[in-house]
Specification:
This protein is mainly α. It has 14 helices and four strands.
């Protein structure tokens, strides 16, 4: 009877006025013992189950969108859901783990700690082994007696998934870098440019671990902020894009006008130099089409048109001797040779007579220094 009282307790129900046998129910704040013998409060166990479920749901998105031909797409859904906090508990855990690892690498000398643990462990095992051999007078000490008969090895099947995921993650990073470098998406490339420029200037003021923490916080904070105010942010970005496009068009028009004016001045200068040198350079600089500039057309209209000199008749040879000024004057006098000429016509005779009346009389001067040919 006493055993029944210890196992069951009487519970009074106010509505019915009766008492019922009901086993003792632990309060919610009391510890709960699981099947493995681990004691934990129910709230912590429930929260741990939720975190585990969200982590499993997040990692299950790695393979989504992978069609086999583009392996870099398998991580898009994972990082999108991670950085947009679609699984808040999983994103929070990974954020704290990332910041904790950065701070640990900063304030804890991990290589030195690893070597310290290594030499202290080896010193302890060697000391116990030597003490055991000395005390028990045997070839085996305390440590070697507990050594397993077969050494533990890592199976290949457990490492293959790690290698596959590492290979896929590296390909994903390399592919995304190429997308940014070759401007597959202008907005993404601009964001990457702005981030790298800000990091370049901040690295002069902040240490690397501080820059990594800032980058991690921004990576987890900016995507949900953008999704919450997407319309306002897109409107401002569109307005900024229109303003930048307007400034670009104005700068392009100004530069084109100045370049056209400089080209006109250069053409005019080249034409002037060609005329002074006696060379017509207009066919070489006017290009395949007509000159479109008004200033160049006006300048070309002012320039004289050069004509080519008539070539000498073929087969005519001349044998001239350099003469002085007096000899050239005597040579210019009309010769009285016996060469036959064609009879002039009436018009030619009239023109010649009018022309000869206007010319002054030329006296022949005897050139004593001339050389007879």
């Amino acid at each position: 009877m006493s055993s029944n009282n210890t196992n069951n307790s009487k519970t009074f129900v106010p509505e019915s006025g009766l008492t019922t046998d009901k086993p003792d129910v632990l309060p919610q704040s009391a510890p709960q013992r699981t099947s493995q013998g681990i004691t934990a409060p129910p709230a912590i166990v429930k929260e741990a189950d939720k975190v585990t479920g969200e982590l499993n749901a997040l990692t299950s998105t790695i393979g989504q969108g992978d069609d086999g031909q583009h392996p870099i797409k398998k991580y898009h859904s994972f990082f999108y859901q991670l950085l947009t906090w679609q699984h808040p508990r999983a994103s929070g855990v990974l954020l704290l783990a990332t910041i904790g690892s950065i701070l640990t690498s900063r304030f804890v000398d991990i290589p030195r700690l690893a070597f310290y643990s290594l030499w202290t462990g080896l010193l302890a095992t060697v000391s116990l082994e030597l003490v055991g051999r000395f005390v028990f007078r045997s070839k085996q000490g305390l440590v070697s007696q507990f050594a397993p008969k077969q050494l533990y090895t890592i199976p290949r099947a457990s490492l293959d998934p790690i290698f596959d995921e590492t290979h896929s993650l590296l390909n994903f990073i390399v592919g995304e870098v190429q997308r940014l470098l070759f401007v597959r998406n202008v907005r993404h490339s601009l964001v990457a440019f702005a981030s790298s420029f800000v990091a370049y200037n901040l690295i002069k003021l902040l240490p690397l671990w501080g820059l990594l923490i800032i980058g991690t916080l921004l990576a987890f904070a900016l995507p949900p902020l953008y999704l919450r105010h997407q319309q306002a942010i897109d409107a401002q970005l569109q307005k900024a894009a229109e303003i930048s496009q307007q400034h670009y068009n104005n700068a392009y028009e100004t530069a084109s006008k100045q370049a056209s004016e400089l080209a006109d001045k250069a053409r005019t200068t080249v034409i002037d130099l060609g005329n002074k040198a006696g060379v017509d350079v207009r066919p070489y600089i006017s290009g395949p089409g007509p000159v479109t500039s008004t200033s160049v057309q006006d300048e070309l209209a002012k320039q004289p048109i050069l004509t080519d000199a008539k070539p000498k008749a073929d087969g005519v040879l001349t044998n001239k001797v350099p003469t002085t000024g007096a000899s050239s004057a005597s040579a210019a006098a009309p010769s009285t040779g016996s060469a036959t000429k064609s009879p002039p016509t009436g018009e030619h005779v009239a023109d010649k007579t009018a022309h000869d009346d206007n010319l002054p009389a030329v006296k022949a001067v005897k050139n004593e220094d001339s050389i007879a040919v």
